[in-house]
Amino acid sequence: QVQLVESGGGLVQAGGSLRLSCAASGSIFSWYVMGWYRQAPGKQRELVATISRAGSVNYADSVKGRFTISRDNAKNTVYLQMSSLKPEDTAVYYCNAGYDSHNYDPRYWGQGTQVTVSS
Fold this sequence. Notes:
The chain is an all-beta fold. It has no helices and 11 strands. It has strands at about 5, 10-15, 20-25, 35-40, 45-50, 55-60, 65-70, 75-80, 90-100, 110, 115-119. The strands form 2 sheets. Strands 2, 4, 5, 6, 9, 10 and 11 form a 7-stranded mixed beta sheet that branches. Strands 1-3-8-7 form a 4-stranded antiparallel beta sheet, with no helix packed on it. Strand 5 (about 45-50) and strand 6 (about 55-60) form a beta hairpin.
């Protein structure tokens, strides 16, 4: 069992940057594949990025080149650095943890953090 707590969301103007953090506790962080999903109002939840135990990363096409996922196993934390933000990036962002990086199906979820990008 792992508990996940996100932070770092907020309001930013288009073109700006934010860094989301997700602190994990309760289990061995390095065992897990970590990821970020987001959900905008009226839209389906979307997988944004994943990072494997070894640090291999994958991104949704909509964020490639603008977002960077990383992890610090010593701090039990995963990050999502978001740059060149667009209004369509507005969503609740959820940190999650799973076991399979090829068929990522998160087992654990955080409560989410709101990101709002103004035009």
